[in-house]
Amino acid sequence: MAAQLSPRVKELIEKARIVSFDGWQEQFGEAAIATFQSADDERVYLDDPTLEGMPAGEIARSLRDHASPIVDTARAQLLNHFPGITAPGGGLYPPMRAEACWRDFWHFLRCITYGIAAQRTDYTSAPGLAYMEQLYQELQVPLDAMVYGLQALKRASQEQLAQLEITTSDDQITPYFDHLTHALSQFQTTP
Questions:
Q1: Distance from first CA to last CA of the chain, Å, rounded?
Q2: Residue from 174, 64, 178 nearest 113 by CA
Q3: Which end of the chain has fewer CB atoms surrounding its CB within 10 Å, N or C?
Q4: Residues 33, 25: contact at Cβ < 8 Å?
């Protein structure tokens, strides 16, 4: 049986929203921002009609369409780098903690693709990240593993795009991963 989440944790989960589209209105317009916000509210990747015409929509679509193998590769890299992390006493034990981590990887990639599609590194919400930091403190999430996981997501995404023969320059995807990685690396492990 899954452990019960405290009211505090439930509140933090609701408030820990990584993405913000503040400042994007001039570039995309209110209707597009509403579409972006709706996708984020539903916690889904941007759909094809939304990605069409965005600066790097094709790259974001490829990452979206290959999210599962990208996350699987990042997970394998993390497990190789942190042997025992899912074993009793490890930071991602019991299994429900590991599953939450893999879900976070999927959502990290989703949020990063918003920034990639728009070619905007200002896709994060400072208040949302602050709540996420509190949530990670409350749940004692192993931050070193999560930061490593984000780096693994970047590597896996680059590898996936290369396999698909999608040519990208470093500035088309790297800054968006690095932005979120830097934000998580600033989290404190204790309140």
A1: 29
A2: 64
A3: N
A4: yes
Is 51 within the bounds of a domain?
Answer: yes
Exposure string of 158-171, with b = 16+ CB inside 10 Å and e = fewer, is: bebbeeeeeebeee
| This prediction's pTM | 0.95
Is 17 domain-assigned?
Answer: yes
CATH code, 104: 1.10.490.20
Per the domain annotation, does 166 fall within a domain? yes
Domain that holds residue 42: 7-185
Domain count, the chain: 1
Q: What's at 107, amino acid-wise?
A: H
- Digit-by-digit pLDDT tens for the chain (191 residues) are 346 889 999 999 999 999 999 999 999 999 999 999 999 999 999 999 999 989 999 999 999 999 999 999 999 999 999 999 999 999 999 999 999 999 999 999 999 999 999 999 999 999 999 999 999 999 999 999 999 999 999 999 999 999 999 888 878 999 999 999 999 999 998 75
Q: Is residue 191 assigned to a domain?
A: no
